Amino acid sequence: MAERYDILIANCQFRDQPEKLVDIGVAEGKIAAIGADLTSDARQIINAQGNLVTESFVNTHLHLCKVYTLPMMDELALKDYHGADMGKAMTAIELAARVKESYDESWIIKNVRKAVALSAIYGGTHIRAFADVDSKAKLIGVKALIRAREEFKDTVDIQVVAFAQDGIVREPGAADLVRQAMALGADVVGGIPWIEFTDADIAEHVKVCYDIAEEFDKPVSMLVDDAGDPGLRSLELMALETIQRGWHGRSLAHHARAMALYPKPYLQKIAALLKQAQMGVVSDPHTGPLHARVRELLEEGVLVCLGMDDISDAYYPYGRNNMLEVAFLVSHLLWMTTRQDMETLYDMVTKRAAQCIGLGDFELKVGAPANIVVLDEPNVLEALRNHEAPAYVISHGALIDQVKMKEIVKTQEWPES
Question: Looking at the whole model, is its pTM more than 0.85?
Answer without folding.
Answer: yes
